[in-house]
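thread: overnight batch results

M.L. [08:02]
morning all. the overnight job finished for the chain we discussed friday. pasting input first so we're all looking at the same thing
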Amino acid sequence: MQVLMQLFFLSLCACCFLCLYRIGRGPSAPDRTVAIDILGIVVTGFCGLLGLATGQDFYLTVALAWALLSFIGTIALAKFLEGRSFDE
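M.L. [08:03]
and the structure it wrote out:
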């Protein structure tokens, strides 16, 4: 089980670095927005795995809050890139 957790952590680290590369070198703003959203999902995965590894439910609460904030931020950024105001 320990080897499987380490494999998951390594794969999430690789995904994190790939998302950071896309954020830095993305050809357009929508590509960067998608990479930021995926990075939020990866951070949520990190928190979930930490919760499983340590047995503390605090990490799962952080993962839930991070997922909600990431979703709201992505929606706001998408509306901004589309040129509409936030109250439409």
